[in-house]
Amino acid sequence: xxxxxxxxxxxxxxxxxxxxxxxxxxxxxxxxxxxxxxxxxxxxxxxxxxxxxxxxxxxxxxxxxxxxxxxxxxxxxxxxxxxxxxxxxxxxxxxxxxxxxxxxxxxxxxxxxxxxxxxxxxxxxxxxxxxxxxxxxxxxxxxxxxxxxxxxxxxxxxxxxxxxxxxxxxxxxxxxxxxxxxxxxxxxxxxxxxxxxxxxxxxxxxxxxxxxxxxxxxxxxxxxxxxxxxxxxxxxxx
Length: 238
Fold this sequence. Notes:
- This protein is mostly beta strands.
- The protein has one helix and eleven strands; from the N terminus they run αβββββββββββ.
- It has an eleven-stranded mixed beta barrel with strand order 1-2-3-4-5-6-7-8-9-10-11.
- It is globular, with a radius of gyration of 18 Å.
- The two termini are 30 Å apart.
- The model is unreliable at 21-27 (pLDDT under 50).
C-alpha cells in the first residue's frame, strides 16, 4: 500500500507539470493564491476559524489581485453538523475596460451550515451551504449570493498519524437575482503535507470558471493550515 501511495503521488505531480504550459497559455493567464487558515475550539460545542488570503495576477507575486481577511464562529448542533456565521473584508484590484487598475473594497456578512461525514478511517467529506450579503460602498452595490462547497480529504498513507493526503473541492456560487444568477464555479486539487500535528502545508491548483465574457482563472496555490488543538483532526472547508 505504501508503494501504491508513492506511485499515486508521482502521477499527481506529473499531471500538474504536464498541464502547466497549457494553463499558462489560457486567456486568463496564470495567477497565484496564498492562503493561511487558523482554526481552534472555543468550547466542546463552539469552534472558530480565521483566514488570510493574498492573490496575484502573476506567479512572481508582483501584481496584487485581491486581499482578504475573514473570521467565523460555528456551533455544533449535532455530532456531524455546525451552524454559524462571520464577517469578511476584501480589497479587490481589478482592471477596467481601458486596462486601468483600480481598488474596490468589499464587506461581507455570511451565514453557513456545514455537514461532515467520515466515510472511512481514510476518507472524509464535508458539505457547506453559505449565504452572503455583499456590500461595495464605493460602487453603491449590494447583492445576496449563495454558495455551495463540497470538500473531500483522502489520507494517502497510514490511517493513524497520516502525513500525506489529497484534498479535492468544488464550489458553485450563485447571485440571488434573475438577471445574472451564475457567478462562478471553482475546482481545487491540493496535496496536503502534515509538517507537525498542528501544521499542514497544501500546494495545489485552482481553476475558476467565470460567467461570460470573463475568462477562466487559473491559480497555483499554497495554503498553510494551523490548528490550536493538539492535532488537525479534519480538513474542514475554509
